[in-house]
Records
---
Amino acid sequence: MRNIIRAQNYQAKNDIVIIAALFIIGTLSVISPLFNEIPFNEWTGSIYALNSDKTILLYIVLIITTRVCGWDQSDKTINYELLAGHSRLSVFFGRIITSFIWAGVPCIVLMFVPLAVFSLINGWGYSVDLSWVIIRYLLAVLPILRVICELALLTFIIRNGGLSTILGFVFIGIIVILTMVIETVADKEMTWQLGVSNLMVLSSFSDYSYGYVNGEDVMIYNSSLEPSVIAGTVAASALMGGISLLIGGVLFKKTDMK
Amino acid sequence: MSEILIDAEHLGKQYMKKKAVSDASFQIKEGMICGLIGPNGAGKTTIMKMLGGLVLPTEGKITLFGKTSENELAKARGRMCFMIETPYAKENLNARENLEKQRIQRGISDKSRIDEVLKIVGLPDVGKKPVKHYSLGMRQRLGIAIALLSSPEIMILDEPINGLDPEGIVEIRELLLKLNREQHITIVISSHILSELSLLCTDYIFINKGRILQTLSASELKAVCREYYHIGTDNNALAEKILSENLGLTQYETERDGSIRLYDGFDDMVRISRTLYENGVTPTTLCVNEANLEQYYMNMVGDSDAEHNKSAELSGEK
């Protein structure tokens, strides 16, 4: 498995699609507060946390996971790994770990590093609480890893990287819209039930109150999380991620390769 | 005595409605160059995929280097190399990058092995051109180079010379012979170009409609593909009667078109043709032939198809 991961890392470094996805989507994520018309010079750490779009990172997860797990089925890379003597489970989990490395780690970096940079430049600010933001972002890693496992399962079932990417785009888009509709119409918050909505909840702040800072009335957002959301995030991510890996591994072990 | 490297016992593969391979048993011994011969859809690629672990057999057992369990078979495949259906390479990478990736994936620490295999297959100056710009011949060579990286003991090659020009075919043949003789690599190869296989193989496995029809060595094949007279007449049935009753010649076969293949009487052809003529049979064709692999194969497949159709008819009648 270690050799498969090393080979996949070598391949990913030379893959223009992966590099482009990281660069383009990463850039969009970092500059996303601009879409809320927040001037760049006002980007404190808390303003950045409040206004940056983290759900866009799911598209990095989608493109890279389906690329690593699916495109190598189309061009027989996975076949030749099996023919070289690697076990089916090594091939499967090798790709999961590669997806964690190339999709999960960049997402973590893109969440924390801009936050740290803008805090260093303009200070933290007062809009949201720093410690709760760190807790939220640390928890957000779990649904990201969960979505990687679920997308890997989808890709190993479909066995086509392109089709999995398209279906994944559609699926994420539907979930995002559905989550907003349910919250608006039914006044019911989707939290940990789906990985996508879980990430949305952890990275967004809605309740606020007014405070008085430096002689000005300001909006201060409630940054804390309900214990049920925290527990649900951990449990659902572990459970759904684990189930996806179990089903994916068993299916792949029994599947005839094309 | 040569070691048995691959032992397939009653191997079978059933898909939903179709049995792709049925009751296939064969052995590959150390040092062989074994030709797997059969028409399209015969089951050659399915057998190779089962040996490679890409397709799971529904019947039978595979033993590789004496190992049978799933984990042991996976490890045993590390001592083999495969080129199945199309030669493998990542299109966006060049030859060296593909080989480097494979080197890492197989845990080969010696980086100089890349230069070695490129030299062996005749691609030492391949440059930085991505594989998507390679000709078929270059891709085949690169596929073989990738296969050779891990210094395999067995090569399983599925139609490696298909689509190559005559020069390319000769080069691949000479390369495989060299690998077998100098590096003692055992080779299992399938191809439709039977004339090439006859120049290469030490053993043959004939397969049709998922069943192994026959296995024989090159020397056994030579013995059965002996010299014969090809006799065509205006009344072949009567000619056969005359040969056996009037001339006492019984070493003959009837070809599919009705003409006769006579294996004896080589010193008596004048008497044979005169006797036929005197009994009202006019010879239209009379020549000496030697059966080759292609003819042997065509006859075998034809007989197999006839037998298969007959069984199918009988099953239908029942």
Note: The longest helix of chain B spans residues 293-317.
---
Amino acid sequence: MSSTRCYSSRLSWTVALIVSVCGLFSFETIAENLVIKIEKGVSTALPIAIVPFENNTGESLIDVAAIIRNNLERSGLFRSLPVNDMPALPAALEDVRAKNWTSLGIENLVIGKLSKKNAGTIDINFRLIDVYSGKQLLGYRIPVQSDDLRFGSHKVSDFIYEKLLDKPGAYTSLLAYITVDQDSDRGKIYRLQVSDSDGYNARTILQSTEPILSPAWSPDGKRLAYVSFEGRNSAVYLQDLATGRRERIIHGKGINSSPTFSRDGEKLAVTLSRDGNPEIYLYDLKVKSLMRVTRHGAIDTEPAWAPDGRGLVFTSDRGDGPQIYHFNLADNSIKRITYNMGRYNTRARYSPDGRKLVLVNGIKGIYRIVLLDLRTKIYEAVTIGELDESPSFSPNGAMIIYATVTEDGSQLAAVSADGFTKQKLVAQRGEVREPVWGPLIR
Amino acid sequence: MRQLGRIAIIFIIFLSGTSCGMFSGEGSEGVVEKRLSPVTVSEASVETMGLASAREVSPEALDGRLLDSYNVDVASLLDIRVFQFAYDSSEILEKYIAAIEAHAGYLIKNSNTKLVLEGHTDERGSREYNLALGERRAQSIQRRLSLLGVPELQVSVVTYGEERPIELMHNEAAYALNRRVEFVYR
């Protein structure tokens, strides 16, 4: 993986951050990639063969087919044929011999070519073929900047995923997360990073000697809100990804934390303790005004919007330890959500369809990620760690990414929403925490 | 009333001139008393001053803990800067009460000194809830200091939640050390 690819011109990652605030210093724009290891898969996965793409550019390029293969396998829903087991390596429709593949139990075949139109642009041509019927299910030419072939590979993965599973793929969406390194001179270094959905192409967008936490994506995927302690207290910042320009939007006495965007992107739900106690507020990004939502002497924090925008869930210890509550924005009513699930339930997030909550459940010192069905009230642990935290759904609802403590410290892991396929995303150095999956890029 | 009695004892220790070497600008015993008088006193410390005349109180009236703290050098009580807490709790542990009273006395005596209470938690559970819990711990000490007569403007609170552990291991001993409020004098 060449580091030069980290400068993707399409997304204009100029990383020209304004380094005017104390506590910050010059940035390394290139970060270590995350390596994703699949820990457990299911055998009912859909068999597929992705033939290495024919490279007609005359240049040495990354292995597009391998990226697609890894992407699809990571969902736990596909099983791809190893290249060594392939009976042939066709790149054009007329070279495909269906029997070669059906005899191996392969239903779906992906072939492709890479060619150069002009300097700086590469065409990805690919076809998805149902080898039983002999029909081409998909066929596209995708022109990409030559340093952006990885993005093109994710785009192809999205096409295949959506065609075969009838659900949007989330491969072109991005991850944001926090890393912490120990620097011998400066102590701890906190970084806010953004990577591709497979953990590659990691870019640092903020670096500080003071803690950074709670990154949150805007619904258009163009901005990140987060909390930084660079001013010796928590404050909420909003940063534009393309330009790196940022603004301290909420600060003041006490806690200024836990931002999440409303679906229309116009409001942030936040936790502020300026009135002496942590309460949920809504911050209107246009008018720049605050509206208080909760009024209770207990801790109220970790607001998250329902996908329909009509309510919020939040964590409060007003009852029996920290539990999840729902706030109805139409009539201001508050209802407890978590019952009979132990005395520690925190950090809930909705599934994109609004039917489930993913949250952190603590029982007898074991903290796991739990999925709660809001209609049936049935819940199940989907992780097996002892200190799991910060779950976040992929934007298509298929995966949950979270942080888990391993021998290497805090690392990222992902689990399919059915709990069957687990994988670790291992950073090559430091701790990694608080992953948040960005929105689908259309 | 018993609470006030304890406060009284601590103030007596102060007034009897135990000065604290680690802070600058300590005056003589007499100066200390002079400084104390103009401080805006709250109801609690008014009671305290009143009770100071009850120096003759028989030792039998005091419980063991008070006897212990009576004998403790205030300077060493002021050395206690890290106050631990139980899991998911912001209740001040009994063993720290004397030390908090000593810090209160010091702050009242040195009205220009500012104290920042940094609230921390262990790493378990969610970060944002822990941020709130850290604040609640610091506020619980802030409230106690205020009840002891420390002017509110002298003490501020900041929470770091679980972001700044002092012990990095993932076990109960480490968690206990990390669940804390740190006193940072400015």
Note: The two ends of chain B are 33 Å apart (CA to CA).
---
Amino acid sequence: MMLPFKRAVLALLILAAPTLLQAQSAEAPVQQVLQTHADVIVKSSRKTIGPAIDALATSGLPEAQVVLERWQAKDMWVNKETGLFVFAEKADGGLQLFDVSDGSEIGIADRKQFKQLKPNSGIRGMIASALVQFRLNDPNPENRADALTAIERDAEASHLAALRGAIDTEDDADLKARKERLERLLTIRFDEDEAARLAAIESFAGDLGVDVRATLNPLVASEIQTAQQIPDGAVAVEVGSDDLTREQAYDLLVEAGLAPALVDTATVKEALIANISGDTVAGVQVASLNEDAARAAAYQLLADQGLADPLVTQNEIDKAIESHSFFRVYVGAPLPVALAAQATLQDIETQVALNQTADLVLDALSLASIYFLAAIGLAITFGVMGVINMAHGEFIMMGAYTGYVVQLFIPDLTLSILVAIPCAFMVTFGAGVLMERLVIRWLYHRPLETLLATFGVSIALQQLAKNIFGTQARPLTAPAWLDGSMVINDIVSISYIRIAIFILALLFLALFLIVMNRTRLGLEVRAVTQNPRMAASMGINPDRINMLTFGFGSGIAGIAGVAIGLYAKVTSEMGSDYIVQSFMTVVVGGVGNIWGTLLGATMVGTLQKGIEWLNPSNTLAAQTYMILFIILFIQFRPRGIIALKGRAAEA
Amino acid sequence: MHTKLLNTTAAVLFASALPALADCPIKVGVLHSLSGTMAISETTLKDTMEMLVEQQNEAGGLLGCELEAVVVDPASDWPLFAEKARELLTVHEVDVIFGNWTSVSRKSVLPVIEELNGLLFYPVQYEGEESSKNVFYTGAAPNQQAIPATDYFLDELEVEKFALLGTDYVYPRTTNNILESYLQQKGIAEEDIFVNYTPFGHSDWSKIVADVVALGADGKKVGVISTINGDANVGFYKELAAAGISADDIPVVAFSVGEEELAGLDTTNLVGHLAAWNYFQSADSEANEGWVEAWKARMGEDRVTNDPMEAHYIGFNMWVNAATEAGTTDVDAVRTAMYGQEFPNLTGGTAVMLPNHHLAKPVLIGEIQEDGQFDIISQTEEVPGDAWTDYLPESAVLVSDWKELGCGMYNTETESCVQIKSNY
Amino acid sequence: MVEMTSTALPRRKPLVLRYPSVAIFLIILSLFTAVVTILGEGFGIGVISTSFIKTLGKTLCLCLAALAMDLVWGYTGILSLGHMAFFGIGGYAIGMWLMYARTEIIVRDSLAAAALPPTPQEISDGIATQIFGVVGTSEFPPIWSLAHSFPLQLAAVVLVPGLLAFVFGWLAFRSRVTGVYLSILTQAMTLALSLYLFQNDSGLRGNNGLSGLQNLPGLEDVPQSTVSILFFWASALALGLGYVLCAWVVSGKFGSVIRAIRDDESRVRFLGYSVEAYKLFIFTFTAVICGIAGALYYPQAGIINPAEIAPIASIYLAVWVAIGGRGRLYGAVIGAAFVSLLSTWFTGGQAPDISVGFYTIQWVDWWTILLGLSFVAVTLFAPRGVGGLIDRFTERRAPDRHGADLGPDLGSLQEREADK
């Protein structure tokens, strides 16, 4: 869609280009450095780029830093014809060019003549690493922080000295602490002095940082080897232990060329095929070799004739293992350093295990609060009123979509969430009241049919959402202050959005308790639930109360939808993801009791996280086992954890 | 009156005798879900096909005939795919089918297509381990997407520890299986490969993300290879962003996240994470500019193009050229004419149809940008698609060559054809 | 009660006379089968396409499952939202054999060319690689240990759903889980099963499921047009037999007891009947019927995967029965056939779009909404469903109880009493 005018301008520019480029100095020293390595720079592969970066970094040219920085920022382009490098910015009508040596403006040129250099994140890391020497004492604290990040990501031995030189001059307390910590880590890795390393290692005892473990673990790297005698500085390993099974031990011997390899079925087969003559092998009919035993026997015949390697007997295996020693050798560091590192690591590991448990508990609580949030609306409609609302999940979905629509109109994220919550409540309250009036009130004494009718509504609502919003997930973006997570240490952390959901769940619990126990509405709801006729004769309008209660439950589901949408996704099917779990939560907890629902959610959440922890590679299994467990649980406590007794149970 | 009728009859007879073969109009079956869970992805492809057919008709049709797209809706219901494929082939008598997205839907359709000798163009990246006589695979095989992306991780980012996260279905399973084997051959120890599967639409990612972060505890650089499908990506990337993981610390390369998927996400926190495809909308070529322009003009300014669309674009044009060459739309003739067909990619270079029914295509790796597009940072030469992976022992001995060997599953060890029909 | 029925009633009339619907149904079914055969491609004039014959055959299987659903819900009052799980298990059981046997032929053929005759282990490995290669393993999971044997897998079609239903029912009924609780529990069961099968570790190929089931091992040369007719016949036969069997079960004293359980469980218990045993029998029996229906359905569908067992499938089963009319066997059949064929028609894109000026209603998008809402409408306004229309002809009415409650399940026919 290029306008003719623009085309004309472009053509002019192309004509003008050669003159423009002549303005660029090809002899500038930094351009010379770049030209020397032009091939690898254009090729842009981490494997070959090293010399180019080094040359720039060590060139001693004052402009080297700028070149490196702008190269890293993908601002450097290369002229396809002349091969000269320029800085460029996209501008109207093409590229605005700047000279690499002094950043002076060259002019505007056609984009097609230039190729943008796109260093990948590996190369960008290398450039950052090379920039460390320039930036570590940079007056701008942000640049110093960048330098430290670069060291953290990809440390080199040369950084140690530079870092040590930069600690004393640091005036920012945070950065200074970071520098000191980093210095100790680099000491462990690169210092020649063993005593300094040992001291640094010990200083990290009990530190939970991933970086500490990342530094220490390579030091304790070890491998099991075998020989006749255990050499000095190695630790003996017992054959048959968990560290080294007999099979592994024998494999080690074979690998080291100290024992003959075992003959497996594939080898047998190959040897037999190689020795087929006519329709026999070693005198045995080929057609009869359709059993492993028959093949082994024929192979034995071959081996006897010397046509194949002999089979290794168990006796020989035992003998070979007995006559050799197996030992562990530390390959990552000299033995004292390795042992010190191991001791510190062991200390850390205990802490890590404790903290992991804490993290798991946090996760479980978070999941529980999500389930609770999803289920609390049900706790009202199902728990209090006894109405099975299978469209409950769709109310959650409606709430989430309301949030999405509000965000379309209000770009400010914080404000939009604040508006979305009452909107979601109103929309789903309205939908709930409508459904109660149109469908549910005709079916109060026929629970099975309520279930079916609400299913009908659920199916229709889901499809309606698909028709309106499409099947693709819609974004519901949390405001910036809910981004990120609360980091207690490198192991225990929880995202703010989950904390917000947790707090919301607690608020709902409080709201529920207050409404049910402290307000007239709550009193009337309880009265109607227990005995509608008696309540009616006391002047309560049961119809109105039922309508409001149902609307209230649905409205809460709508707010839950906003929260769930913020943390996960908004799709037309998000309701069905939660409906069965929500019912399980309510049923497991005990119908008609909010504390039961709370317990139920906690149990379901904890259980799911617990099973996930036992079987980390398959999250699906966790869900299956959880449902199975709940099915069994309900068999033995059909009325849930907190069972209502007496007449209320029959209501 | 009489003569007129006679004339028309004669003309009809003549016309049917002249270009010889195809009775007009030539029907192009479109077998993409328009409802159900897959609708969002597949509807786009249906629109693509309609656009391609229209463009071809404007350019004069094929073999002197108009093309007609016959669209059916298998509704994301796998058994229904087989039923609709049979309907297309026997009731509508289409000459070719463009369709399917998920592997399971393809496996559902395979027996029908093979029984009735139909012709299917399958446009989506998939797990390989298949080469049907009646299917042309215009999407990427693992060696055209997964392997180059892994190489990129190994060589360019120096990743030493891999987290293979996937949705629990066949494409991630097989791909991860191949990758595990490949990584081990590249010297990555078994314990440095962490594999995890989650259900479709999974939303609770905190523990898995924490596990991935914890992988870095032994000082090796961690990279995530994600075969997470569809909606589940939303929660995954949200959790990644919440955990403050930058692409420079733990890069994530995704095989199922394209322009369409990113539309449902706020990408500011994902900048720098990667995806590997054979096509990105941001590809810098004139053909692509025209393509994107035509698409936006037809569908709306906010619509994006993606990899499977390019696959249909190439597949359809190759089919048109092959049919023109063969002078008929007869399946066997077209199939023979397909081998060696060349057509320019939208990303530059030329796609070639190989005798194993896969394409040779370049592999692109892109970094996610703030605007939901990808910045292409690496583009390889054309990589020939490999039906049977070289990195699994039982597949390494298999080759597919329909031109010379006439077999899609030929065992080079025993030098025999394992089966003519495919595995389904 | 026992005393009374045996003395008060004269000799029981034969089943067909007591249930004229049985005879009528069988006649209609045989006529239908004959017409379809004549119009079909396999043995007839080829007016009906093979794909439509398959659709009809599958519909018959769904009718059979709906019969079972009617028995368990319409007659016994147990709203099971998990019966499609049994249907799916039946499909998986037969699917395992179909896949194994078909693959075995392929593997044996290809290994025949090898230098050494294959060992049993090599054959088994070869089959496993072929079947599980796509999901990344090459070993047989233990669940497949019987897959080589047709009779054993056939037995599994009946036994596995039966056993699962028995264990589940025994646990549930024993602890008196009733009403909506039971419904939710059965739904959880089917959800758990489908989630389990979605895992590749379950050994049944995860999300891919079992495919290529329409190709019968050893019958590769028989065209699908013939195979489809054969399966159509088998489905019709199964439906006919199922109908007679169900009619027989609900006809006698047993039928009265289960209907009584539906209407008031506690009273039946106080009368001394073992309510749990009756419910358990019906639950298990219908599960077996569903299993058989599934085993006939999936070879026609060609593929089975866990999505087939998702809770929504069982809900649709209930929808069919509700729309057809609960507590009437013919109602279930009418509902299943009517709704599922209508569904095929609407989602198949054959239904014309309706343009209302500013918006075009595409049935592909709006059919589900229509279905959902019509379901609500049926529940509210016509609890007898389509079967209620037939009641008008036969003048069968619910008894006049002078305003008293008819029992929990208004939609079901109260036949015995209505006669008087």
Note: Chain B has a mean pLDDT of 86.
---
Amino acid sequence: MTAYDVERGDGVHPGQPVKVDRYTAGARVNHWITATCLVLLALSGLALFHPSLFFLTGLFGGGQTTRWIHPWIGVVLFFSFAGLFVRFWRANLWASEDGTWMARLADVLGGREERLPEIGKYNAGQKVVFWSMSVLIVILIASGILIWDQYFAAYSTVETKRFAVLIHALGAVAIICVWIVHVYAAIWVRGTIGAMTRGQVTGGWAWRHHRKWLRELVGGGKKA
Amino acid sequence: MVSFILPPAPTTDVKTTYGQEDLIKRSASNISPPARQLTPVAKLIDVSKCIGCKACEVACLEWNDMRTPVGVNTGVYDNPHDLTPDMFTTMRFTEWVNPESKNLEWLIRKDGCMHCADPGCLKACPAPGAIVQYSNGIVDFDHDKCIGCGYCVKGCPFNIPRISQVDNKAYKCTLCSDRVAVGQGPACAKACPTQAIVFGTKDEMKKHAEGRIKDLQSRGFKNAGLYDPPGVGGTHVMYVLHHNDQPQIYANLPNNPRISPVVELWKGATKYAGLAAMAAFAAIGVIHHLVTGPNKVSEEEERKAEELAGKGKTS
């Protein structure tokens, strides 16, 4: 039987230390395209968000370029993230242990993992990041198209655009905060970043943070 | 006999040649108060005297060296039908039946930038210096700095700025700032054959309007008045309306224009709370790391994994 959170390409290589395959090359490339887009969008968006950050337009070759390139990067991000969504959504479905994990957030933040339930491929925090990103990206692309005046100015009223631009700003602030959580967690939990660079983590890392997933992999819950 | 009221002569009080030292507002910038205060100017449009000849439109095109494509007739007099990046002013015609007198009244309003004292376009603009306001009240776009984002369109309570599809920059009436800067009145005022458009200091224009309003009231337009809406701090383009109690009958002239609360929220609390939220998340991360230290995998955990993987292999 295949566990719901064992993804294609996940696998265990016994040895010293044990190596666990967590992300395929395709998933990693997909992730880094999305990540690059998100960073560029944040920089170009912040440039137009607050006057003190307008200097960031210099990174893109000026205000006019920043203005036209931002929505196109958004389109690339939307489709790139859609790829990630298709890959990851099933493993990010809410599981019974996620409620317990959330209830013990103090232990999570204190690094006392021995007091947490055994977790599948993703913990509740990662799932919240995943679903927040998914929802916010839909909100941002929808509100973004409404204010993409170069091509879509005629399709909505100015009053609609006012709400769209406010929602776009609020959504952008939210997604940047989610992104900070995502990046910080990857840095704080040592041994994580290798999952997205080389595609592998150590067995100890999987044991400590995603023991249920590790057991599933060892128990033969592998997909092709 | 009602004597013909001449408009004030081009005022001698309008100071000439302004520059950076005359700015009172600059988009996306903090500026120090201007070194000198220019006399506030205003254009007064007396709707009751307008005959809809469109000489002002032509004068505007002429002075600003613009060409607008030949339009189509859709059964109304409006031509062009709307403001465009190449058309800073347009006459809006309304056929209105006065419910009291049953008279058909032909209301003709010259639409264009109102030069608000509290300009929504300037408030919304993210590009430093792309929109400026001089101490004489004129709100002007600096096209070299415009990035074409269209935020000014969202900020404007009168739906005036238009973004050019050619150079992706915002355009609107300048109140002929280049003419005013050298002591001339706007081209439209110069061309108006009935002197429905007059230009001078704001005080002069208010005084002139008073006379016009008295005249209109003496003719039975008891609600005649000056449109200088306080919601945007007053405007430097004002209308004399024969029905000032219902400006909306003049092709939807806003009754009580103000910068949209949505725009105020976007450019106010959101801007500061947004930056604060992002900074707080980053700061919490740094502090958390300093307090708890890195979350590391122990040797023992690696061994446990080796045991588990080994078992899995043999089973």
Note: The longest strand of chain B covers residues 90-97.
